[in-house]
Amino acid sequence: MEQKPIINFGAGPAKLPQSVLCQAQKELVNYGGLGISVLEMSHRSADFSKILSKTESLLRELLNIPDNYKVMFLQGGGSGQFSAVPLNLIGLKEDKCADYIVTGTWSEKAAKEAEKYGKVNVVHPKLDSYTKIPEPCTWNLNPAASYVYYCSNETVHGVEYNFVPETNGVVLVSDMSSNFLSRPVDVSKYGLIFAGAQKNVGCAGVTVVIVREDLIGHTLNECPVVFDYKVQASNNSLYNTPPVFSIYIMGLVLEWIHNNSGTAAMETLNKKKSSMIYDIISSSSGFYVCPVDEACRSRMNVPFRVGKKEGDEALEKKFLEGASQCGMIGLKGHRSVGGMRASLYNAVTVEDAEALATYMKDFLKEHQ
Ligand code: PLP
């Protein structure tokens, strides 16, 4: 029986470009005529070295990364960086303190982890719901902080920054795991950016860290060696065995972004796809409800309830069943918030978003 086409709206690991999967499949058993798979390749071989340097130079080109930044490909996921960031950077200044802007699950977890290594100041009163970004003029930033940390896109709650926080010269750190390369970014405004690959740039297993050189070398003694940026940067991410296959897949995805005109083109498509879904939500007279403030609605993860503000459980179940029958999967919201979540990463096409929009319109007509 022929497999019906599936559209994956999952939050991550998420949809990859079809052409990337096909190329990986073609090369799986015999990469580049070498007679072995990348899965079997020594990380110290000349062939892997080419993959690694191609991946890094594509990333440098796509993000226009200045020369005084190091790029590392590490393991441990985004959560690993919740520890690695304070372990490497909180000692930048004597007070060993850091400012955190907490706008959702992921920045909350990062702040909690950082508390193990220094003083953490959440710069605004705790939010009672993660549906907005507190006004920057209300942030109580500490000039003695080693860094200011924020998550540019909260994957669970669908809260995304459309601006770069102003820190009055304090080093800025961002978790860009779920909107990395979905839009252009001025890397020079940041001390450090990190992103797990499994949403916009590949498969699970590798986390990109981009860090300004002068911030390296202030690591706390208790930092595990594999998380020490000085060690990893000076070994070109090869201090220990890196996730070779995940890096190879990332290289293919970066090539795909490059061949599709780069991050500005991704941004145009991402705006278009997310507007299609938000427009239906806004014009549904309260049948679909997105709890997030309009100013910070994510282009990557669109959370919404069906039927009423707090969600009509029976209708939401029906919505998911109907979507699944149309081949649309991964639409269930995160277990901590419920409802729906449509993830519209780079690899999700305009046609995919159109299919969801059509389904949402039909469902509305049938059940309003
Ligand atoms: N940061 C963000 C924004 C995420 O969405 C996630 C996971 O979904 C993480 C960090 C944690 O990543 P990992 O599961 O790779 O540790």
Briefly characterize the structure.
With 368 residues, this protein is α/β, with parallel strands linked by helices. It has helices spanning 18-27, 46-63, 77-89, 105-114, 229-234, 244-259, 262-282, 313-325, 350-367, and strands at residues 7-8, 69-74, 97-100, 119-122, 147-151, 153-154, 159-160, 171-175, 192-196, 207-212, 288-289, 301-306, 328-329, 340-343. The two termini are 36 Å apart.
Can you offer a commentary on this structure?
This protein is of the alpha/beta class. Helices cover 34% and strands 15% of the residues. The protein has nine helices and 14 strands. It has helices at residues 18-27, 46-63, 77-89, 105-114, 229-234, 244-259, 262-282, 313-325, 350-367, and strands spanning 7-8, 69-74, 97-100, 119-122, 147-151, 153-154, 159-160, 171-175, 192-196, 207-212, 288-289, 301-306, 328-329, 340-343. The strands form four sheets. Strands 2-10-9-8-5-3-4 form a seven-stranded mixed β-sheet. Strands 11-12-14 form a three-stranded antiparallel β-sheet. Strand 6 (153-154) and strand 7 form a beta hairpin. The longest helix is centred in the C-terminal third of the chain and has 21 residues, at 262-282. It starts with 6 loop residues before the first strand and ends with a helix. The mean pLDDT is 97. The structure holds pyridoxal-5'-phosphate. Pyridoxal-5'-phosphate binds next to helix 3.
